């Protein structure tokens, strides 16, 4: 099995884990294909030998890769998605971060996890993406987001106004620090800290969540994801900041931003015991009486 492996960095306390990880891949007779920059770190930090295949673009995923493994937090997982894109290659997340809603296992349990992958004891959960278009095509071919698009102020304390239209119909003008438009997956990301709703991942919806809205009666809105969304940011500054997941670009005042659901979905590896609501309860410590801790 050809397995693409991606992580952002090798920390000192993770050296032993990575040594064991690649040893198990060898024992399973898997063929690791490692992201170029990560491979350089592995050779330096854990002495990984030369001769492994590498990748550095989504074009390398067109054929020949059976599984992608993301090792890190949610940010690492999102970057891995930008490599996988429309290839259909399933992604397994191994969490090394502190919170993380996207990964389905952790470093302490990785050996059993890889054995279960070998035995095909898992399912795929499909996740939708947002595709973003602007007149100047500022994101090029990196115009996809698994979590959200954020339009927000750049270098000022002043609020901005973000006009939002659904299928050409005017929705609202948000007076705020910014506005988030995201997928069901993105409901547990930035939007969560802005008071947005928690949405089950398979729901076919997009949300609009204001960032620090000036009008206190403005609330997040959930809409069907087949409806195109148009945004226009207006304010005192010449530029605003447009962020797709963790990838940011400046955008001119008054630029129209078109958002639609991407025409493909991401396959995320999931195990039967790790349901969405179980993950939410554990990550957010619902039902735990802190007085007894």
N-to-C CA distance: 45 Å
Counting H and I runs of at least 4 residues, what is the number of helices?
6
Tell me the major beta sheet.
6 strands, parallel
Strand content: 35-45%
Number-wise, the strands total 18
What is the gyration radius calculated from CA atoms?
Answer: 20 Å
Overall geometry comes to: globular
Strands across the major sheet, in which order? Answer: 3-2-1-4-5-6
Indicate the structural class: alpha/beta
Average predicted confidence as pLDDT: 93
Identify low-pLDDT runs: none
User: Helical content, roughly?
Assistant: 10-25%
> SSE order, as H and E?
EHEHEEHEEHEEEEEEHEEEEEEH
Brief description of this entry?
The protein is an alpha/beta fold. It contains six helices and 18 strands. Helix 1 (15-27) links the parallel strand 1 (2-7) and strand 2 (31-35).
Task: Write up this protein.
There is one protein chain. It is built from 6 helices and 18 strands. With 293 residues, the chain is an alpha/beta fold. The strands form 3 sheets. A 6-stranded parallel β-sheet has the order 3-2-1-4-5-6, with helices on both faces. A 6-stranded antiparallel β-sheet has the order 8-7-18-15-10-11, covered by helices on one side. The radius of gyration is 20 Å and the shape is globular. The N and C termini lie far apart (45 Å). The model has no long low-confidence stretch (mean pLDDT 93).
């Amino acid at each position: 099995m050809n397995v693409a492996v991606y992580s952002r960095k090798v920390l000192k306390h993770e050296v032993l884990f990575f040594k064991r990880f690649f040893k198990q891949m060898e024992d399973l007779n898997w063929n690791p294909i490692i992201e170029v920059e990560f491979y350089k770190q592995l050779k330096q930090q854990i002495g990984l030998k030369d001769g492994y295949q590498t990748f550095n673009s989504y074009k390398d995923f067109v054929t020949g890769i059976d599984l992608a493994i993301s090792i890190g937090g949610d940010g690492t997982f999102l970057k891995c998605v930008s490599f996988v894109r429309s290839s259909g290659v399933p992604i397994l997340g191994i969490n090394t971060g502190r919170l993380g809603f996207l990964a389905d296992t952790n470093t302490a349990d990785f050996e059993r996890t890889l054995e279960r992958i070998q035995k095909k004891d898992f399912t795929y959960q499909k996740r939708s993406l947002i595709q973003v278009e602007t007149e100047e095509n500022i994101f090029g071919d990196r115009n996809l987001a698994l979590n959200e698009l954020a339009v927000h102020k750049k270098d000022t304390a002043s609020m901005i106004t973000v006009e939002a239209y659904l299928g050409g119909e005017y929705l609202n003008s948000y007076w705020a620090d910014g506005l988030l438009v995201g997928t069901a997956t993105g409901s547990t990301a930035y939007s969560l800290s802005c008071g947005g709703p928690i949405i089950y991942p398979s729901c076919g919806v997009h949300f609009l969540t204001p960032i620090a809205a000036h009008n206190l009666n403005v609330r997040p809105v959930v809409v069907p994801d087949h409806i195109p969304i148009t945004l226009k940011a207006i304010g005192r500054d010449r530029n605003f900041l447009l962020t797709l997941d963790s990838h940011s670009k400046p955008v001119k005042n008054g630029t129209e931003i078109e958002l639609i659901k991407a025409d493909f979905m991401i396959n995320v590896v999931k195990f039967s015991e790790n349901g969405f609501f179980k993950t939410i309860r554990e990550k957010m410590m619902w039902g735990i009486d802190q007085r007894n801790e």
